[in-house]
Amino acid sequence: MSDISLATWLDRLEQRTPESRIDLGLERVREVADRLDIARPDCPVVTVAGTNGKGSVVAMLEAMAVAGGLKPFAYTSPHILQFAERMRFDRALAPDDRIAAAIAAVERARRQVALTYFEHITLAALLLASRMKPDVLFLEVGLGGRLDAVNLVDADVAVLTSIGLDHTEWLGRTRAAIAREKAGIARSGRPVIVGEKRRPPALEQSLSRAGADMMLAGRQLKWRRVKSGLRVELGQRVLDLPRPALPGRWQEANAACAVAAMVALEHRLDLNEEALSAGLRTVSLPGRMQRFGSAPEIIVDVAHNAAAARTLASALESDQGRCLAVFAALSGKDVKAIGRVMNDAVDHWLIAGLTGDRGQSAEQIDAGLAAIPVSGGRETVESVPRALERALARARRQDRIVVFGSFRTVAEAWPTLMQQG
Fold first, then answer.
1. Which ranges in 172-272 belong to alpha helices (H)?
2. Hey, is 402 helix, strand or coil?
């Protein structure tokens, strides 16, 4: 069983339970985790939840840890190009054979316990982390928080980046309901960092009931842009740091959350301010306001809900040239809400279909956008690569092309993007 390749294992898991299948709850994963003895890692754990910004925060945490001479293990999802992007040790992709061996070990340990794709992969990540013996473990929640498989581990520090309307069929149809679910990653007597300034009262109420040590944006946690970079205030403590290397002003909030999390662990990790600064200067993450080529410039972003699209739209404001959007989304996404917040920033839409599980056709997405009046134009194209090629043919040198809608949208555009430099 250990000789089976990672690709074969992933195919088997997908055939058994497609990755899109969701079955929230901790009983099954906890039973298998106890058999593998992986529910209580031997190192500090930071768990990150939130509607948007989770991956950016984890990337910053990794960069700061490595800059401080530590070897972190990070588990995130989904990936763009390679599955191993989900499991990183010392900021390098975990080897495929070691991931496959961990998946095989979970398969043996589960016996008759039915696991979803995500649950199986999460257990494999925790097992691999235990084998690689990192100095610190960074975990990104897959969906919600309270009942997500990642939450079987008690976080030493919890981070809640933002609260928005996404996955409402699972988490609830209000920000208050979603906040309660995400608050479930907090633990009594342990720090929880909240980066959302406009948070529903239900979030603070839930964290208070949990007995967590709250550090809330606008209260105990503040940040602002200064001439020298980014000033982060943690109570009475003030840190003057560089702005994060990830583009977009909103990344400053993510940076403040990451800094607060690392400071909360400094008594265990022995990190200094120089490491925090170096991490923010060197952090990188594909698919977040990532730029390719010039004349025209192509901007790629994994924004896949209205909140992320609103942030993206604010970054696209420009008096020069037109903005051509290549947009493709997975099923279940509120394309009407996404289109509404992006519409003023976009001069011409190229609606593309997505392949694979949960992919929507261009016609399905276009139907969702039909109620939105567009000042420019809108056309449907069968695939993301074709849509990007058409956008490149239409664009003038001073124009910009934005490719967004999901991780898969970015992945399908990648071969064409690589040709642009």
1. 175-182, 201-210, 251-264, 266-269
2. strand
CATH number of 327's domain: 3.90.190.20
What are the average pLDDT values for consecutive 10-residue runs of the chain, which has 421 residues? 87 88 90 98 98 96 98 98 98 98 98 96 99 98 93 98 82 90 97 96 97 97 96 97 94 98 95 97 96 92 94 83 95 91 93 89 91 82 96 95 97 91 60
The secondary structure of residue 244, as a DSSP letter, is P
Which of 185, 110, 99 lies closest to 149 in space, CA to CA? Answer: 185
In this prediction, residue 59 carries a pLDDT of 98
Contact 250, 196 (CB under 8 A): no
Helix 54-67 × helix 251-264 angle, to 10°: 50
Same domain as 64, residue 128: yes
If asked whether residues 63 and 84 sit together in one domain, one would say yes
Residue 383's CB is within 10 A of a number of other CB atoms, namely 16
What is the extent of the structural domain holding 355? 290-418
Statement to judge: residues 320 and 385 lie in one domain: yes
What are the helix (H) ranges across 133-250?
A: 168-171, 175-182, 201-210
Domain count, the chain: 2
pTM for this prediction: 0.94
Residues 405 and 386 in one domain: yes
Q: What is the pLDDT of residue 157?
A: 99
